[in-house]
Design goal:
This protein is mainly alpha-helical. The chain is built from 4 helices and no strands.
Length: 72
């Protein structure tokens, strides 16, 4: 089933994208800082969410991991 139709899968994809964009921006900021608008700007916005809300994103990742490992 596609991640668009399953809420748990969609949430996993969004969390992984936030974590990935934040990781990429920490090592190569010029890749994401070039375009802050448009469709590619979505990755920059996800990196900003990961930077500013990192304790909450980390907690969400841990909760999602527990959910996938033990309750799926």
């Amino acid at each position: 089933m596609s991640a668009l139709f399953n809420f748990q899968s969609l949430l996993s994809v969004v969390l992984l994208m936030i974590c990935t964009c934040t990781y990429i921006r920490s090592f190569a900021p010029s890749l994401l800082d070039r375009q802050k608008t448009g469709p590619v700007g979505t990755f920059w916005k996800m990196a900003r969410i990961g930077e500013r809300k990192s304790p909450w994103v980390a907690a969400a990742c841990v909760l999602m991991a527990v959910n996938v490992l033990f309750f799926s």
